[in-house]
TrEMBL record, chain B:
<comment type="pathway">
    <text>Amino-acid biosynthesis; L-histidine biosynthesis; L-histidine from 5-phospho-alpha-D-ribose 1-diphosphate: step 5/9.</text>
</comment>
<keyword id="KW-0808">Transferase</keyword>
<feature type="active site">
    <location>
        <position position="181"/>
    </location>
</feature>
<feature type="active site">
    <location>
        <position position="183"/>
    </location>
</feature>
<keyword id="KW-0963">Cytoplasm</keyword>
<dbReference type="InterPro" id="IPR017926">
    <property type="entry name" value="GATASE"/>
</dbReference>
<keyword id="KW-0368">Histidine biosynthesis</keyword>
<keyword id="KW-0328">Glycosyltransferase</keyword>
<keyword id="KW-0315">Glutamine amidotransferase</keyword>
<keyword id="KW-0456">Lyase</keyword>
<keyword id="KW-0378">Hydrolase</keyword>
<feature type="domain" description="Glutamine amidotransferase">
    <location>
        <begin position="4"/>
        <end position="198"/>
    </location>
</feature>
<dbReference type="GO" id="GO:0000107">
    <property type="term" value="F:imidazoleglycerol-phosphate synthase activity"/>
</dbReference>
<dbReference type="InterPro" id="IPR029062">
    <property type="entry name" value="Class_I_gatase-like"/>
</dbReference>
<keyword id="KW-0028">Amino-acid biosynthesis</keyword>
<dbReference type="Pfam" id="PF00117">
    <property type="entry name" value="GATase"/>
</dbReference>
<feature type="active site" description="Nucleophile">
    <location>
        <position position="79"/>
    </location>
</feature>
Length: 243, 201
């Protein structure tokens, strides 16, 4: 999301407009999505707070867990987002610059509210670094080490986005997801690269993801939540499929 | 009127949004008098048992809630609001309200704790009272590191597996308590809440 609209890019660039966030949220809830994730992707680099009004208007509509992130730098930022109806808040750049943020937020609201949003990019074979500022800056941190540290200090979930795969629709980063999911004791949501049905099977079976996130596939009507769930169910992956 | 107990903890906003969607009248309140006059009490809650109990005591709500429960006021406890009804929680080793005999224990068999996500609830026949509109093994949304173990198994109205099988729904007289979050469980959660509210309003 940026400037109040849903956008989707490729490898964190070339964003195109995908519509009204509140409307899309309602549609995905009805389609059987298990969770909604809102990321205000330019809040940090624009140095402004997240769009609380959009958070609030969405929260009153949806009946499923609602996770929100973007530009969170303090406990109070997080409180504002929760008060406006989010169930969880993700921290990214703010927590890399100041890891205490995770600890303070977890102590105040509980680990279950604190999601680490980790944007990773491969820098050498089997080595991924953490990127911040919406993928613009290499933080010089090893992604696996940062994931473990963030869990140790209190994050309750990891939203793991592969910058290399983001928007490419050529499959999730199975290798990275598996390493991180097996290294930590909290759920890992894999994000970036989901394009065809088998990508979703691979990320659960080989990548050991606890959940998978897709954006452009749904925004541009290429696949529906239901199609993916029906497919996974047939392949023997446990999904909530009650429609 | 439904009283949603505000004790400075948890996701009261989500609970309020959901009751609004269902069209029932409610008040978010920490006032014992309003709670006493309500037709249904909801004790929501996300967070730690120790913080929850400390707040209930600080706000003089522990006694109000226990009195209302003893008088069989229709009551819905959600997540921490279920756990606090028991004698004791391992989380922070804290004495709770003691309205239900039993303990709250930490998950020990699974690697990933907290248990975050959708999981099945198998309703038993005593749970069918509120399960019209959805299947008896539907998915609900959970966020918990601890689970309740009541001494009296006959009050267990639904169970869930997460390494161990635990009581995810308890029904005793007019009390309904759920370890999951019905307010975050899509249409299935809305059915459960609507069934419970309609039963008493």
């Amino acid at each position: 999301m940026t400037e109040g609209k849903v956008v989707k890019g490729i490898k964190f660039e070339a964003f195109r407009d995908a519509g009204d966030p509140v409307e899309l949220a309602e549609i995905y809830d009805k389609q059987g999505a298990d969770e909604l994730v809102f990321l205000d992707i330019t809040a940090t680099v624009d140095n402004r707070p997240i769009l609380l009004d959009v958070v609030k208007r969405t929260a009153v509509k949806v009946t499923i867990p609602f996770s929100v992130g973007g530009g969170v730098r303090s406990v109070d930022d997080m409180r504002q987002i929760l008060i406006n109806g989010a169930d969880k808040v993700s921290v990214n750049t703010g927590s890399v610059r100041n890891p205490e943020l995770i600890k303070k937020c977890a102590n105040t609201f509980g680990s279950q509210c604190v999601v680490l949003s980790l944007d990773a990019k491969k820098v050498r074979p089997k080595i991924w670094n953490v990127f911040i500022d919406g993928g613009r800056t290499d933080a010089g941190l090893n992604a696996i080490e940062w994931a473990k540290e963030a869990v140790r200090i209190g994050c309750g979930e990891i939203l793991l986005t592969s910058i290399d795969q983001d928007g490419t629709k050529t499959g999730f980063d199975v290798e990275l997801t598996k390493i991180i999911s097996e290294a930590v004791s909290v759920p890992v949501i894999a994000s970036g690269g989901g394009g065809k049905l088998s990508d979703f099977y691979d990320i659960f079976s080989k990548g050991k993801a606890d959940a998978a996130l897709a954006a452009s596939l749904f925004h541009f009507n290429e696949l529906t939540v239901l199609q993916i769930k029906d497919y996974l169910e047939k392949k023997g992956i446990e999904v909530r499929n009650e429609t | 009127m439904i009283a949603v107990v505000d004790y400075g903890i948890g996701n009261i906003g989500s609970v309020a949004n959901t009751i609004n969607k269902l069209g029932f009248k409610f008040r978010i309140t920490g006032d014992p008098e309003i709670i006493g006059k309500s037709k249904i009490i909801i004790l929501p809650g996300v967070g730690s048992a120790a913080a929850g109990m400390a707040n209930l005591k600080k706000l003089n709500l522990a006694e109000t809630i226990t009195d209302q429960l003893r008088n069989r006021k229709p009551f819905l406890g959600i997540c921490l609001g279920m756990q606090l009804l028991f004698d004791y929680s391992e989380e922070g080793k804290v004495e709770c309200l003691g309205f239900i005999k039993g303990k709250v224990l930490k998950f020990k068999k699974m690697k990933k704790v907290p248990h975050i996500g959708w999981n099945r609830v198998s309703f038993k026949s005593n749970g069918f009272k509120y399960s019209q509109g959805f299947k008896a093994n539907s998915y609900f949304y959970f966020v918990n590191s601890y689970y309740c173990e009541p001494a009296d198994k006959s009050i267990v109205a639904g169970t869930t597996d997460y390494g161990e099988s635990f009581a995810s729904v308890i029904i005793r007289n007019n009390l309904l308590a759920t370890q999951f979050h019905p307010e975050k469980s899509g249409i299935t959660g809305l059915y459960l809440l609507n069934n419970f509210f309609k039963h008493y309003l």
